[in-house]
Design brief:
By secondary structure, the chain is an alpha+beta fold. Helix content is 36%, strand content 22%. The protein has two domains: 72 residues; 270 residues, Major capsid protein gp5 (Major capsid protein gp5 fold), CATH 3.30.2400.
């Protein structure tokens, strides 16, 4: 277990992800054996052997590397062939908008796009920010973002046409009561309503291409553009959904006020403290995780996920329950998720590391708790001048986000209280 074979090489040799997944599961078994030995040494000698600890850490790091490669390979397998984008119109019968967009991207021809957008009464023009991409291109960008962004994949995503999405909610329910069959029915009080607002902020990427690539008729422009902006959009989005300030970017869930769960109120996120500053308890650490799970209402636990980064997951992976079973379990399939206490784990690198007072672990029903707002329309501006001989494509989309249900997300604070 001192060295791990590269999964790219494995897949190239075997032609599938199954063998790579087998290697990952074998590595996890080796990790459990080494960690069991470390725990036995701590129990019998009061400390673990340095060699054993080092071996556990190396296998743990290798497991993380394996998982990252498996995720990347799974994404590659979902990509459509070079000549045809998934869900797009057939290359032999392209839409009018798609044909005009293709001519704009490849050759800079604007007449057809300008005519189409004028006919559609669109505000998009080269002077005010570029042209709207065809619907199938926008759909492909959204599909790839859902695959690449761990937060977007588990949250509620809504498309809107306005710059701000407004969602009303009741701060106090309508008055209710029990009455007899012939009793008078008094008039109930009206519910008090408040409003959450989710403004859409501008997100941009600027992929570059050579004119030779654009002149190649085999290259699918839709798929190329979607693939190029995927990583840039996904990384920026995920960081904002976690830590965004809500001013020029979405409001990240860690940027809301967090209060002890016993004093929770609407507008705040509740947290459970580990009882140890900057660490999990040395004994019965699983109890803290169980407390966090059951701080969430039963209706939200059914669709709950854990969110944590790679380093935190490495620490959690070492924990056992009272019966000696590991709390963390690997995914059963290559495109599946690892689980912790039987709830799926989403690895998000923008979550903080374990440290004093850090909220390094989140648990909740993010489908109910966090709303992502996509304003319809991805815009592109072709720039063949700024970076000759390359052609730049200034691509923008508008995205907003914020907590919509403060009961559905709980945090673990690595602090005494």
């Amino acid at each position: 277990m001192d060295t791990m074979p590269n999964l790219e090489t494995k897949v190239a040799a075997t032609g599938g992800l199954e063998h790579a997944l087998d290697d990952f599961l074998q590595a996890f078994e080796a990790f459990k054996d080494a960690n069991d030995r470390r725990l036995d040494e701590i129990e019998t000698r009061m400390s673990a052997d340095v060699v054993t600890t080092d071996k556990v850490d190396r296998i743990n790091a290798a497991l993380d590397a394996y998982k990252q490669q498996l995720d990347a390979l799974s994404v590659k397998q979902t990509r459509p062939p070079l000549g045809q984008a998934a869900g797009s119109v057939s290359a032999t019968a392209p839409s009018e908008h798609k044909a005009a967009f293709d001519a704009y991207v490849r050759k800079g021809e604007t007449a057809s796009l300008s005519a189409l957008e004028a006919k559609a009464m669109s505000a998009g023009s080269a002077s005010d920010g570029g042209y709207l991409v065809p619907e199938q291109t926008e759909t492909e960008i959204g599909r790839l973002l859902s695959t690449a962004s761990p937060i977007r994949a588990i949250c509620d995503v809504r498309q809107v046409s306005a710059s701000v999405y407004k969602k009303p909610f009741a701060t106090s329910g309508a008055a209710t009561g029990w009455v007899g069959e012939t009793d008078a029915r008094p008039q109930t009080a009206s519910p008090v309503l408040a409003e959450l607002q989710f403004p859409a902020m501008e997100l941009y990427a600027m992929p570059a291409a050579t004119q030779t690539l654009l002149d190649d008729a085999v290259v699918n422009v839709d798929q190329w553009l979607a693939g190029e902006v995927q990583t840039a959009f996904a990384e920026q989005e995920t960081a904002a959904f976690v830590n965004g300030d809500g001013v020029t970017q979405p409001h990240g869930f860690l940027n809301y006020t967090a209060v002890d769960d016993t004093a929770w109120s609407w507008g705040n996120l509740g947290y459970v403290a580990t009882g140890v500053d900057g660490a999990l308890p040395a004994t019965d650490a699983s109890d803290v995780l169980i407390d966090l799970v059951y701080s969430l209402r039963a209706g939200h636990r059914q669709g709950a996920h854990w969110i944590l980064n790679r380093k935190t997951q490495g620490e959690i992976r070492k924990l056992k329950d009272a019966d000696g079973h590991y709390l963390w379990q690997p995914a059963a399939t290559a495109d599946g998720r690892a689980s912790l206490l039987n709830f799926p784990v989403s690895e998000v690198e923008d979550m903080p590391d374990i440290s004093s007072g850090a909220f390094a672990l989140a648990f909740g029903d993010f489908k109910a708790g966090y709303l992502i707002v996509d304003r319809l329309g991805v815009r592109i501006l072709r720039d063949p001048y700024s970076a000759k001989p390359y052609v730049l494509f200034y691509t923008t989309k508008r995205v907003g986000g914020g907590v919509q249900n403060f009961e559905a997300i709980k945090l673990l604070k690595f602090a005494v209280s």
